[in-house]
Amino acid sequence: MEMLEEVSRADGPDDAVRAYAARIRRVRPIDAFVSVSVKDVPAGSYKLSRVQRADRPEPMVLAMRPGALARMPIQSGGLVGRLLAGAGSGGGSTRVEPRIAHDLSAGVDPVVGDAVAGMGSCMVIPVLDEGRPVSWSLMFRKDPKGYQLEDLEEEVLNVNLFGALTRHMDLLAENTALSDKLRAQFDEVARVQRALLPTAVPEMGGEDGPRARFAASYLTSGQAGGDYYDFLRVDEDSIGVFIADVSGHGPAAATVMAMLHAILHARPELWKSPAGLLEWANERLSASSIEGGHVTAVYGVLRLGSRELEFVRAGHPIPRVRSREGEVRGLESEAGPPMGIVAGDAYRLEPRRVRLMPGDTVVLYTDGVSETENPSGEQIGVEGLDSAIARAGADPGEVVRAVEDRLRGFRGSPDREDDQTLVVFTLEDVIEGS
Q1: Burial class (CB in 10 A: 0-12, 13-18, 19+), 418
Q2: Residue 379, phi then psi, degrees to nearest 5
Q3: CA angle, 139 as apex, 133 and 140 as ends, to 5°?
Q4: In contact, 243 and 420? CB cutoff 8 Å
Q5: Any idea what the Cα angle at residue 43 is, between residues 38 and 47, rounded to 5°?
Q6: Phi, psi of 406 (to 5 degrees)
Q7: Are the C-beta atoms of residues 56 and 62 closer than 8 Å to each other?
Q8: Residues of 110-127 as b/e, b for ≥16 C-beta within 10 angstroms?
Q9: Whole-angstrom Cα distance, residue 105 to residue 7?
Q10: Is the confidence at residue 422, as pLDDT, over 60?
Q11: Residue 144: which region, alpha, beta or left (left: phi > 0; alpha: psi -120 to 50)?
């Protein structure tokens, strides 16, 4: 039990071997131990992975980890080579089996030196993986008749079970290293992606006329997401408000999002035309031929002086608008298909123009908001979103916080299955006397 407890806490194969060896000697004394790898080496050859004598506290050779083992030289011959050949490893035999060698009278060896000098007997045990030996364990005793058949039978099981454990440790270490590398790459993608988002929300209007206030929230399901929003300043009186959702999420969706950012900013002369801008974006996305890289979006131009909002929808959820009195409704409009599916002249969007009233608050969102699920698998839906919007005040930041709080409470967890993005703006009253 002491051995199992310590092995279960081992950080790697070497720690596990140390814990195993220290305690197994209490049950079966071993005067010297040699382990070799025969994986990916010529027949009859081997690599030393561990060489140790009981009367020396530190291993004479230690290369248990895959990286260290790869740097070890390929060996052949010596006592180890003869023992392996006798067990069917590299000796021309197709039969591989454990064996006991007695009456060795071992001296100084050309490969392992004096590590086995004075040893009289040895158990030679194959460690199998997928039915073939990948390594061998050689357990030496000074007694020329130091081992019996019962010892061999027991150690074959012990060594192979322990070999499976250390292989799993190696695989876990490799997977952990790979995961850390991928996580670092995803973090870099996420940093680049966030650099493409607006650094601050805009301000429009002033003391002598109407004013628009904005707020936004961008929450990904992982390190990198496929949602996108932007503010495109058309002129002093007008601003474009854009929100989009790339199919899927993660690094692939983030890459399409970066492409979309470049496409939108390549033609600032189109910012004043919602339909013209998204039709241009669709043309470029369709030409890229990215499988599954379609994008839903809403783009609207708010003209502050006339309080007019002109917008188009490309397969995206209907924007919500909250009146000064707290009534929430949808800004219904004809929706075209998502961008990146239909190419050429067949892709046309019909804009809608609405006149906003002072105190109106417009909420744009991605479907990760309305499709948030609770533990029972039920979606919050547009009704749940509208309820959160209605209970909030007219301040855009307050609306964002109210919706986020509602989503967390509904899901019962801060985790998200999909990216969630909100863009909110409020048209304030014209200041009296202007």
Answers
A1: buried
A2: -90, 145
A3: 140
A4: no
A5: 35
A6: -65, -40
A7: no
A8: ebbeebbebbbbbbbbbb
A9: 34
A10: yes
A11: alpha
Find out whether 303 and 256 touch, Cβ atoms under 8 Å: no
Phi, psi of 261 (to 5 degrees): -60, -45
* Contacts with 190 (C-beta within 8 Å, 6 or more apart), sequence order: 220, 223, 224, 225, 254
Give the CATH H-level superfamily of domain 2-175: GAF domain (3.30.450.40)
List the structure tokens of 195: 């650099």
Q: Which two tokens stand for residue 181?
A: 């590398």
State yes or no: pLDDT of 157 exceeds 90. Answer: no
Burial code (b: 16+ CB inside 10 Å, e: under 16) for 198-225 equals eeeeeebbeeeebbbbbbbbbbbbebbb
Tokens of 133: 């030996």
How far is Cα 380 from Cα 394, in angstroms, rounded to an integer? 22
Neighbours of 182 (CB within 10 A): 12
CB 325 within 8 A of CB 357: no
Which residue has tokens 């180890």? Answer: 80
Neighbour count for residue 415 (Cβ, 10 Å): 8
d(CA 342, CA 328): 33
Residue 171 has pLDDT above 80, yes or no: no
| DSSP-assigned letter for residue 236 | S
Following DSSP, what letter does each residue of 151-191 receive, concatenated?
HHHHHHHHHHHHHHHHHHHHHHHHHHHHHHHHHHHHHHHHH
| pLDDT tens digits along 365-393 | 999 999 999 999 999 999 999 999 999 98
Yes or no: say if 124 and 138 are a contact pair by the CB < 8 Å rule: yes
Please tell me what DSSP assigns to residue 105. Answer: -
C-alpha to C-alpha distance for 401 and 389, rounded to whole angstroms: 10
Contact 30, 24 (CB under 8 A): yes
Domains of the chain by residue range = 2-175, 201-427
Distance, first Cα to last Cα, the chain: 85
Give the total residue count for the chain.
434
Token pair 């000796």 is at which residue?
Answer: 91
pLDDT in tens, 77-124: 999 999 998 877 654 445 678 999 999 999 999 999 999 999 999 999
Question: Distance between CA atoms of 172 and 281, rounded to whole angstroms?
Answer: 44
Verdict on whether the full-model pTM lies above 0.70: no
Query: What's the CATH code, domain 201-427?
Result: 3.60.40.10
Token duo for residue 377: 């698998």
What CA–CA distance (Å, rounded) separates 434 from 92? 101
Is beta strand 45-53 parallel, antiparallel or unpaired with respect to 99-101? unpaired
